[in-house]
Design goal:
- Residues 89-415 form the USP domain.
- The structure is a single chain.
- With 1029 residues, this protein is an alpha+beta fold.
- The chain has 29 helices and 40 strands.
- β7 and β8 form a beta hairpin.
- α7 crosses α13 (431-475) and α16 packs antiparallel against α18 (601-615).
């Protein structure tokens, strides 16, 4: 079949020779492609959307061949959830609980621990009514029930969410697995110690607890001071070691205590050099060896994983490491693996040896895999989630040894003769737990039957649908000469797609504004036989029904007119262009046309024709001539049509003759065919009188503004040029009175003087900006010497007289000098007087704002050897806007003035105003009050230095939270940070920044505590606040 574009062209090719008033039925059917041949099966790769008769590739292939019953449902075989024979049960990963699952599997395979848990008293489970679900409450009850399900459940995996919820663990956050092991065993030990059966009290100690002592020997007198201790696992450093023996040897290695680390000997009664070591006295039945892969890197401030290969044996002789030498052989029973290169992510799995059969199994949450040949196989685990940089060659291992860079815990079990006794390896589930497991197994079997029944119902429904589709699809094609109807293509596809629910047939989107089938929508519909349409509408309903009588003659006629005009446009464009070149206008015969419109009239005509096409389209299903509601957007309102460029805002002819020209009546008649609604102006049309009057008035106002600006500039030349300005720092000798106006007024006035024709004249002086509601002055003399100078401008008395004549002043403000007791003493008074109550309220509100800020900027500056970076240059990577602001506002250096960008004032001045006498250095006085160099203003933008970074903080944020931000910005750990402001140290981590006096724009000095960079274990805080903690 021809492509869709070719079908579109063929459907309207007849318009070249047929006028709209001559359209016949055959032309309408060609436009709706009624006679386009239908496609045969195999001829199209996909459905031809441009052909309403093509019924191939709409999803029928899934029903016309052999049908696989599995396609009728999406229900997995329930038997896939059933536990295989002679295998173990897995545990569901609840998000990030794989580390919990690994330990639960290891502890489940500790037969002595499992037997002990089964002996715990559980009155709730023993008396439970089997008609309701059993919900454990205590940790012991959860673990009992979980182990019973792991032993006798028919499910392939079970859900441990009950136990995880009881422990208070966050299922979405992966915690430290080693820390979890310690805390859980401690919790279990405490639980068992409260059991009534005394034989259960010391089971955890018997299984996991060993004895050791820290022995310190004085080098002077030789006195040994032992400190006995218990351990549940040995934490072995692996950095720099290759095998397990080296790790244990270093753990027991003697440590020298000398220098500042000397030991206080009670016999010598003084600090002496000494030696300290660990002595192992007894080992537990189950020896847990923690390989310290996760360490804290002080250089980065984060934990990291050590991907070091460590070799470990299947049989471990710990005899040589005991104080009482002897045979103490352990056999490897479990290896816990962390896959991944990061300490903050990855996946945990466990390799566990079955105590009964000695077979090795890999436990990976729900998936359990039995190792071949009763051997531990770690090879595949070492190839996963390793980056190219971290890949190192795996060392060769001797027979009986294994090598891993992902193992983080090794579990060894002491070899005993009774371990081979069948009575010891057989653990029976108690009767009360067995009944609960049997009930859960019955529920599982019922679920399997229910799923199997649902599968059967889906298959039966699919077979019935199969027969329906085969029957109806054969009836769909409409034969030539027979009656037909249209249905949506998308509905047919969904009808043939069994995965979706078949809705009623909706033809509403295919209607034109006349309530009939729109010719542009025929490509989205399919023409089917009336018999097939009757069956589909009877079963699924819907409407409106679209048959042969709904082909819209009005839409076809409109499209015919538009297409003919488009074809004629090229010829008319050439003719109009030629006529415009050799134009001759006689009196009273011409028409005004916009020059811009004439240059682009061809494009405007095309847009107008396309707009006419859109008018026939309909998309909201309204009929009976009721078209879609059209909301005019801003773009549509601004869109120009022909001659709008010479239309003034009053609807008349524009007064700008340079933007229009005369055209002949012949040219205008051709243009009117394409723009029947365009504004029409004859040669005799007068320009808009309102525009002419406004133009005259505008020119008169501009002349007045120029005259006014010139007069005011000559009268106030020094004020305009900022020359010979009075200052408060050194009162001028020639006058005892000065006047005050807002600096805003002066800035606006200068703007008018520079551009009198482009800006509005300034008519009044609004001194009320500087007054309180009681009409009192808001600034003290000291504050005007400092930060408040940025709000005011000082005037000479003669300047004030000029201001009073030219401008309306709401309230004069003056400041007078009063002779003091000594010549150097200066006393002033302000009229109106200072309103002290409002001033105090203003200062209080200002200070409050400084203490209650949010999302403010502070600057952290890294210093070295207590020296601030005074000689550092500003950073060059500032934005273009910053650089532009700095160019516009260069900094004036006054003798003796300290640059606030490079150091803070010794008297504790901040960058924002705190009180009358405490203001920011950045908000320095303007030249009018500070006596700076004429014409120069200081920039208020903070200029960053090398070694300085900006942070966003809030007043209620604690110092500890700020230190964490600094750690991310400077890679300095919080405990290595010494922070200070103006020499005042910030030490209280729990205090808020507002209470510590940290205000917006403050500069905080950061000094890094210099210590050797070591890899240390970071205390784990992930379980803080959890029930397990």
């Amino acid at each position: 079949m021809a492509p869709r574009v070719q079908l579109e062209k063929a459907a309207w090719r007849w318009v070249e020779s047929v006028r709209p008033e001559d359209i016949q039925r055959e032309h309408i059917e060609i436009a709706y492609r009624i006679c386009v041949p239908a496609c045969k099966r195999g001829a199209c790769r996909r459905n031809c959307k441009g052909n309403p008769n093509c019924l191939v590739g709409i999803g029928e292939h899934a029903w016309l061949g052999e049908i696989d019953e599995n396609t009728f449902h999406n229900i997995d075989d329930p038997n896939s959830e059933r536990r295989d024979k002679n295998t173990f049960v897995g545990l569901t990963n609840l998000g990030a609980t794989c580390y919990v699952n690994t330990f639960l599997q290891v502890w489940f395979h500790n037969l002595e621990l499992r037997r002990t848990l089964y002996l715990c008293q559980n009155a709730r489970a023993e008396e439970h009514n089997m008609d309701s679900d059993y919900e454990p409450r205590s940790i012991c009850e959860h673990l009992q029930y979980l182990f019973a399900l792991l032993q006798n459940s028919n499910r392939r995996y079970i859900d441990p969410s009950g136990l995880v919820k009881a422990l208070g663990l966050d299922t979405g956050q992966q915690q430290d697995a080693q820390e979890f092991s310690k805390l859980f065993l401690s919790l279990l030990e405490d639980t068992l110690s409260k059991q009534k059966n005394p034989n259960l009290h010391n089971v955890i100690q018997q299984q996991f607890c060993g004895q050791m002592s820290y022995v310190t020997v004085c080098n002077q007198c030789g006195r040994a001071s032992p400190l006995p201790s218990r351990f549940y696992e040995l934490e072995l450093n692996i950095q720099g070691h290759k095998n397990l023996t080296e790790c244990v040897t270093e753990f027991l290695k003697e440590e020298k205590l000398d220098g500042d680390n000397r030991y206080f000997c009670e016999s010598c009664q003084s600090k002496q050099n000494a030696a300290r070591r660990i002595k192992l006295h007894s080992l537990p039945r189950v020896l847990n060896l923690q390989l310290m892969r996760f360490v804290f890197d002080r250089q980065t401030g984060h934990k990291k994983k050590l991907n070091t290969f460590i070799s470990f044996p299947e049989q471990l002789d710990m005899g040589p490491f005991l104080e009482e030498k002897g045979i103490c052989v352990y056999e490897l029973s479990a290896v816990l693996i962390h896959r991944g290169v990061s300490a903050y992510s990855g996946h945990y799995i466990a390799h566990v040896r079955d105590a009964r059969t000695s077979d090795w199994y890999k436990f990976n949450d729900e998936e359990i895999e039995k190792m071949e040949g009763k051997k531990l196989q770690l090879g595949i685990e070492e190839d996963i989630a390793e980056t190219v940089k971290s890949q190192t060659r795996k060392p060769k291992c001797s027979k009986g040894y294994h090598c891993s860079r992902n193992a983080y815990m090794l579990v060894y079990k002491c070899q005993r003769e009774e371990d081979t006794d069948p009575m010891e390896t057989n653990v029976e589930v108690p009767g009360f737990l067995g009944r609960l497991v049997d009930r859960d197994n019955r529920k599982f079997e019922e679920w399997c039957l229910e799923m199997a029944d649902m599968r059967k119902q889906s298959v039966d429904k699919g077979k019935a649908k199969h027969e329906e589709v085969k029957e109806l699809y054969e009836l769909l094609p409409a034969e030539d000469g027979q009656e037909y109807e249209f249905v949506p293509l998308e509905w047919l596809k969904k009808w043939l797609d069994d995965s979706t629910v078949t809705k009623e047939i909706d033809n509403g989107n295919f209607l034109c504004s006349h309530g009939k089938l729109h010719p542009d929508k025929v490509g989205e519909a399919k023409r089917i036989s009336v018999k097939a349409a009757e069956l589909l509408f009877d079963k699924y309903g819907g409407g409106p029904r679209l048959d042969g009588s709904t082909l819209c003659e009005e839409c076809v006629g409109q499209r015919c007119r538009v297409l003919r005009l488009k074809n004629q446009l090229a010829e008319d464009y050439k003719e109009v262009t030629n006529l415009l070149v050799k134009i001759t206008i006689t009196f009273d015969e011409g028409y005004w046309a916009g020059k811009t419109s004439l240059r682009s009239w061809r494009q405007l005509a095309l847009e107008q024709l396309e707009e006419d096409e859109e008018e026939t389209k309909h998309s909201n299903g309204k009929t009976n001539g009721e078209g879609p509601e059209i909301t005019a957007t801003k773009d549509e309102e601004e869109m120009k049509t022909f001659n709008e460029d010479i239309l003034c805002r009053h609807g008349g002819l524009s007064i700008l003759e340079s933007e229009r020209r005369l055209v002949t009546e012949e040219v205008w008649s051709k243009l009117r065919v394409y723009f029947p609604k365009a504004p029409q102006f004859t040669q005799l049309q007068e320009p808009c009188q309102q525009c002419l009057r406004l133009e005259r008035e505008g020119k008169e106002n501009e002349a007045l503004n120029r005259m006014m600006a010139s007069e005011q500039k000559s009268s106030l030349l020094n004020l305009f040029q900022e020359k010979n300005r009075p200052t408060l720092t050194k009162w001028p000798q020639e006058t005892d009175i000065l006047y005050i106006v807002p600096l805003f007024f002066v800035d606006e006035w200068r703007r008018f003087i520079r551009r009198p024709t482009k800006t509005t004249p300034v008519s009044s002086v609004g001194n009320s900006l500087l007054l309180c509601p009681h009409r009192g002055f808001m600034f003290t003399f000291d504050s005007m010497l400092k930060g408040d100078a940025q709000h005011i401008a000082l005037l000479w008395p003669d300047e004030w007289e000029v201001i009073s004549r030219h401008f309306l002043v709401d309230q004069p403000i003056s400041i007078c000098r009063i002779s003091g007791a000594t010549p150097n003493e200066l006393t002033v008074c302000v009229c109106p007087e200072l309103c002290r109550d409002c001033r105090e309220g203003f200062i209080f509100q200002q200070q409050r704002d400084m203490r209650e800020y949010a999302q403010a900027t502070v600057y952290v500056r890294k210093v070295i050897d207590d020296k601030r970076l005074k000689d550092a240059a500003p950073e060059m990577n500032v934005s273009g806007s910053e650089a532009e602001d700095e160019r516009e506002e260069p900094v004036a250096k006054v003798d003796g003035e300290r640059d606030p960008d490079f150091s803070q004032s010794e008297d504790g001045a901040k960058r924002q105003k705190l009180s009358d006498g405490t203001v920011s250095a950045a908000a320095s006085p303007t030249p009018m009050a500070s006596g700076g160099k004429s014409g120069i203003r200081r920039s208020t933008r903070h200029r960053k230095l090398r070694g300085e970074k900006a942070l966003i903080v809030s007043a209620n944020q604690t110092l500890k939270e700020l230190k964490i931000q600094i750690m991310h910005a400077f890679s300095v750990a919080p405990f290595d940070q010494n922070l200070s402001i103006d020499g005042r140290c910030l030490t209280d981590d729990s205090a808020t920044l507002g209470s510590l006096g940290v205000i917006p724009e403050s500069v905080i000095c950061l000094k890094v505590r210099t210590l050797p960079i070591l890899d240390l274990c970071m205390p784990e805080e992930g379980f803080k606040g959890k029930d397990i903690f």
